[in-house]
Design a protein that fits this description.
Layout (H helix, E strand, L loop, with lengths): L13 E3 L12 E3 L10 E2 L24 E3 L12 E3 L1 H5 L8 H10 L51 H11 L10 H4 L19 H18 L37 H6 L9 H10 L2 H6 L2 H9 L2 H12 L5 E2 L6 H6 L6 H10 L3 E2 L7 H7 L2 H10 L12 H14 L9 H11 L2 E4 L1 H15 L10 H13 L20 H22 L3 H20 L1 H9 L9 H11 L1 H4 L8 H11 L8 H14 L4 H13 L5 H15 L8 H10 L9 E9 L12 E5 L5 E4 L1 H11 L4 E4 L3 H9 L2 H4 L23 H6 L1 H12 L3 H15 L16 H11 L1 H13 L1 H4 L6 E5 L4 E8 L7 H13 L3 E9 L12
Parallel strand pairs: 5-11, 9-15, 14-15
Antiparallel strand pairs: 1-2, 3-12, 4-5, 6-8, 7-8, 9-10, 10-11, 12-13, 13-14
Length: about 900
């Protein structure tokens, strides 16, 4: 389900500045570095500084002396000596295997860094004109290779500001909302009060009658009284939703539905209210929602006032459940915020429209008991004379169980049915409400449809993530690339298809929540349901055919693809099934039988199935046969073939329970034997380890004692950088290829974010990359333009390429995209120039071309370090491996590719020695 670029910061890392940090020149968006890699540039000279020294902002070059000193006293050196930590440890001390005392010292010495990067305000988005709207069927065309001309002038790589503004006026990209069709016009009165523009058409007699009917409904609403529940708060009387949760008097079924092209040509301007109310309108008032969700939701939301949507939006953002009136985090909070003029009447109106449910009697007894607090349950136990089975205090679940047992054993409680218990609970709770289940379900369907092209995370975070983006874009704190959005439904041609996709996402979330609670039994039960639904979908000819008609890069936005992904991802859980030991094997065999639903995971499926045969069933020959079948599959990529070959070699070299000779010989004929050996070197490092609880899994810390007696704490990559400095490479970066990839992709910005009719590439203005990013379709669709651009870049000098990079930084800096702006910025352009001179333009272009051709394989896995000698114009890519660490197949593939391109590569193995006392150091100078 990964639809985002690998360089875009994770959504969970987006945070706002405090009011004191925001000014007219500084960024209004910060990215939390708690999960980031090491800072950009590390000069390999480690020198101590005064206690006042601090690290610069993340985009500044780190000078030799900018190592943070932390005073630590040890028995073997003087008190005036210090322990200095490298930036990688300082920024993320919890990742490293050091004691808590040192961590606290590191954190206390760190100062909060304010970003100094200027952000360019994002352009104000506008709606797409009708000229860009086409029927859905227009976009479903077979993929073809197209040739698009490219100007050979350097000045044409990036359009001028005037041309850019002109294109923006033509494209008019804005918050996507296209709902005002003739159907809705005939059923809802879009008044100025709701800030929505309706088409200027004469009202038909049917419409006039409809308006009169709606006015009568309003009169009835105004006559409703509000019941006073508490002394401080007044809330409406209880309302129980209808069975289907809809308002029958608001919605009429039209005799003839409009074409989607007609809906797309009408525009809606969303204004008024606060951010929550505008966001709700944004996700609901869309033309496609009319077809894909419950028809009534659009009309209901459109009939709500801004005050109603202010409250409703905040309720949607909460965890679904009952909300009490008198709780600090309950309704009392919203009343104190003064969000609306008359809070009580707003709640009454929401209840009347059945957007909220205020009838606690509609809740199941166990859920109702769960709303109460522990002390309230104890009080209720005394009322019903329920004695604890033991003298120990009961937990809340145990108390709830005692009430349920009482109800199940006795038909009556104190002379009445279980409703008596509910009545007592109601008195304790006071006024409560929760969102109507059906309405919330419809809203979440709308949200899934709006966000599926760009959201990548847990379902519980979907609303908050999408709302945050919407809010930050409105405030110009976040901006996205300018591209031509096609407002069409891609995979969802019916309500059922969207509903099936939503259910698949919910099942995936349920599995994840069970695993977080370590409830493997329930996770396996849900996975069995997923397996059955997957088999059912595969056997459905309509679902299968519609899936196979889609390009592979669009297939992930379908229920059947989600099912396949969930099953593969949780194979290790399925192996733990005690009720059915064959479950993991059955799932893997079925996934391989229908491999068109898991194209990118075919090598992994073969390997996992082989492991099941080998470990669970002790059938080595069957395991080898599975690997052999994978090696014979010509559709498997080069990297996949290497993965299978490595597994095959393990079986061929077995000393115990050997393979059959015929099978071994056949495997050897398919194994890719690489005679080349990767250059490697070995260095030693003193490990500072701790034996504290939960210290396993952390990165090792290495120490180095310098001449003045101070001790340096560093990561394994820092140690390697120090080694290569002694070899003449005066500078280096630990970025896993981020900078050089960002440099290359910035040269192709206009190609990446351009339109290529008749392909569907951008369907939401919140995408940071095209839908086909990291797929082979990406290169095929743009092949000729990429080749032309590559040919022109080859003829350029380093200075000319740097000019392109500077122009790109000036225009697009901090735009959410495939560029990592943490590394690629104006301040680092001198470093970019040096790297280009040392690496060479041909190697630089070969690396980028490989990424564009097969981004799924080569977007990741580049060597950890790039070190260079600016004086002699030499450079080396280094993969660092600590003790007990091995090269992955992807890393090996990248290293051989770099050698093929003519780059210098090396694998640096770090051997740890010494040990477990942190006062045991080695002078490595």
């Amino acid at each position: 389900m990964d639809s985002t670029s690998p360089f875009t910061p994770k959504r969970s890392r987006i945070k706002r500045k405090t009011s004191g940090e925001i000014n007219s020149v500084s960024r209004t968006l910060l990215f939390d570095d708690s999960h980031s890699r090491s800072p950009f540039n590390k000069n390999l000279e480690f020198s101590p500084l005064s206690q006042q020294a601090i690290l610069p902002c993340e985009n500044e070059l780190i000078k030799p002396e900018q190592i943070t000193p932390i005073k630590m006293e040890h028995s073997d050196f003087k008190k005036n000596n210090k322990i200095l930590v490298s930036p990688s440890i300082k920024n993320r001390p919890n990742r490293f295997n050091i004691d808590e005392e040192t961590k606290i010292s590191i954190k206390s010495s760190s100062r909060k860094r304010n970003s100094s990067n200027n952000s360019t305000p994002s352009k104000k988005f506008k709606s797409i004109g009708s000229e860009n709207c086409k029927p859905i069927t227009y976009y479903f065309q077979p993929i073809q290779k197209i040739t698009l001309p490219l100007t050979n002038k350097i000045d044409d790589y990036f359009k001028s500001a005037t041309e850019q503004r002109s294109n923006e006026e033509k494209i008019k990209i804005n918050i996507e909302s296209t709902v005002k069709s003739e159907f809705l016009t005939n059923n809802v009165d879009f008044s100025k009060e709701n800030h929505i523009k309706s088409p200027t058409t004469a009202l038909s007699p049917h419409t006039q009658n409809r308006k009169k009917k709606n006015s009568k409904i309003t009169d009835v609403k105004s006559q409703l009284s509000i019941e006073q529940v508490t002394k401080q708060l007044h809330f409406p009387s209880q309302v129980t939703p209808t069975k289907n949760g809809k308002i029958n008097h608001i919605m009429n079924t039209p005799t003839k539905s409009p074409r989607i092209i007609d809906l797309l040509q009408n525009k809606v301007t969303i204004t008024g209210g606060d951010t929550y109310s505008r966001f709700i309108k944004y996700i609901v008032l869309k033309a496609e929602i009319f077809f894909l969700c419950e028809d009534g939701i659009m009309t209901i939301i459109d009939s709500c006032t801004d005050d109603e949507l202010k409250i409703f939006g905040r309720l949607i953002a909460r965890k679904h459940g009952w909300i009490r009136a008198d709780e600090p985090d309950g309704l009392k909070k919203y009343k104190e915020l003064n969000l609306c003029h008359d809070f009580d009447s707003v709640l009454m109106s929401l209840a009347t429209k059945q957007l909220i449910n205020t009838d606690v009697y509609s809740c199941e007894l166990d859920c109702l008991l769960n709303i109460l607090k522990a002390h309230e349950l104890k009080k209720l136990q005394k009322t019903f004379k329920i004695n604890s089975a033991s003298n120990k205090s009961q937990t809340k679940p145990e108390m709830i169980k005692s009430f349920m047992n009482l109800v199940n054993k006795q038909r009556t409680i104190r002379g009445n049915s279980s409703t008596n218990l509910k009545e007592c609970i109601k008195k304790i709770l006071g006024y409560c409400l929760k969102l109507s289940d059906s309405i919330r379900d419809d809203i979440m369907s709308c949200l899934i449809y709006e966000s599926y092209p760009y959201f990548n995370g847990d379902e519980k975070d979907r609303f908050r993530d999408c709302f945050t983006k919407f809010s930050m874009v409105e405030k110009k704190e976040l901006k996205f690339p300018t591209f031509n959005v096609k407002r069409v439904s891609i995979n969802f041609n019916s309500k059922d298809s969207l509903e099936m996709y939503k259910n698949a996402l919910n099942l995936r979330q349920e599995v994840q929540l069970s695993l977080e609670k370590k409830d493997h039994e329930n996770a396996i039960k849900v996975l069995k349901v997923v397996f059955e639904k997957f088999k059912s979908a595969v056997h459905d000819k309509c679902i299968r055919d519609s899936f196979l008609e889609l390009p592979t890069y669009l297939r992930k936005y379908s229920a059947v693809s989600v099912y396949a992904h969930v099953l593969f991802k949780n194979i290790s859980i399925l192996k733990k099934s005690t009720a059915n030991k064959n479950l993991a094997k059955e799932v893997l065999e079925y996934l391989l039988k229908h491999k068109e639903f898991s194209m990118s995971k075919i090598p992994d499926l073969h390997i996992e199935l082989a492991k099941v045969f080998e470990s669970q069933f002790k059938q080595l020959n069957n395991a080898a046969t599975v690997i052999l079948d994978g090696l014979k599959d010509k559709t498997i990529s080069e990297l996949g073939h290497q993965m299978l070959s490595s597994r095959a070699m393990i079986y061929v070299n077995r000393k115990i329970r050997k393979l059959d000779d015929n099978l071994k010989e056949e495997l050897l004929t398919f194994i890719s034997n690489t005679k080349k050996q990767l250059p490697n070197t070995t260095i030693n490092g003193k490990i500072i380890s701790t034996t504290e609880k939960n210290s396993s899994g952390r990165k090792q810390v290495y120490s180095k004692k310098i001449k003045n007696g101070d001790v340096l704490y560093m990561s394994v990559e820092d140690l390697a950088l120090s080694h290569y400095k002694s070899q003449g490479f005066s500078n280096g970066i630990h970025d896993e290829g981020q900078l050089i990839k960002s440099m290359f992709l910035l040269c192709f910005w206009d190609i990446i974010y351009d339109s290529y009719p008749s392909y569907i590439l951008f369907i939401s203005q919140y995408q940071d990359c095209p839908l086909d990013w990291r797929s082979r379709h990406f290169y095929n669709i743009r092949e000729q333009r990429i080749k032309d651009r590559m040919a022109e870049l080859k003829l350029m000098t380093v200075n000319q390429i740097c000019d392109i990079l500077k122009t790109g930084c000036d225009k697009y800096y901090e735009t959410q995209s495939v560029i990592n702006w943490k590394f690629m910025n104006d301040e680092n352009l001198p470093i970019c120039k040096i790297i280009l001179e040392c690496v060479g333009i041909e190697v630089f272009l070969a690396i980028g071309n490989q990424i564009l051709k097969d981004g799924r394989v080569y977007m990741y896995g580049m060597p950890d370090l790039i070190v260079w000698d600016a004086i002699n114009h030499r450079c080396m890519f280094v993969e660092v491996k600590g003790p007990n660490d091995k090269l992955s197949e992807r890393q090996t593939s990248w290293l051989f590719k770099l050698m093929e391109f003519g780059a210098n590569v090396e694998v640096c193995h770090v051997v740890g020695n010494g040990g477990k006392k942190k006062d045991n150091y080695e002078n490595m100078d």
